Amino acid sequence: xxxxxxxxxxxxxxxxxxxxxxxxxxxxxxxxxxxxxxxxxxxxxxxxxxxxxxxxxxxxxxxxxxxxxxxxxxxxxxxxxxxxxxxxxxxxxxxxxxxxxxxxxxxxxxxxxxxxxxxxxxxxxxxxxxxxxxxxxxxxxxxxxxxxxxxxxxxxxxxxxxxxxxxxxxxxxxxxxxxxxxxxxxxxxxxxxxxxxxxxxxxxx
Length: 205
Ligand code: HEM
Known about the structure:
binds protoporphyrin IX containing FE
């Protein structure tokens, strides 16, 4: 097997800080949302932890964004512009995850330097990193200081709308934190992609 350097250091630093931070945000978020059910930490401590980790992840997000914006590695996020090809490849990948993998078929996606994501990862990571994560951070920022951001909150339809968006994405990220590591464990060994996200090197045929 050949080793390909697909996860540069800034991406790996961003990723593991982000993953640890999301777990803390989810746990403190559950306690904030269901304060009547969970009393793990005192309420003010939970609020402060949630806010500080949130701000840390907002700064950390710019590490990911600026790295990709100022290097040619941004190519790994370029969408497939041929809809027929994209649809065909997506279908093949879905067939593999839903059926082929259980028969021991090879993964139809072959990792290369500028093509590290399969079509499902490609779309999912684009939507998550360019849309959902920024919306989650922005709504979190608005909720952090409703007085200071009163104008923006009113513009988006009031605190209920902003809170509903924040909580809906919170539910999405709870599901993501289970599904994403599960899919990441489907390499040629269960730990192959985790090792790659730690060392930077993906093993390829
Ligand atoms: C327990 C938490 C997590 C684990 C174990 C984990 C694991 C991994 C692994 C192994 C990879 C590399 C292989 C692959 O793409 O499948 C990866 C990539 C990625 N993960 Fe995670 N992850 C976690 C949390 C998160 C969270 C919370 C987010 C975003 C909200 C996230 C977003 C991403 C993105 C965008 C990539 C591609 C990074 C790039 O190369 O630009 N992950 N993750």
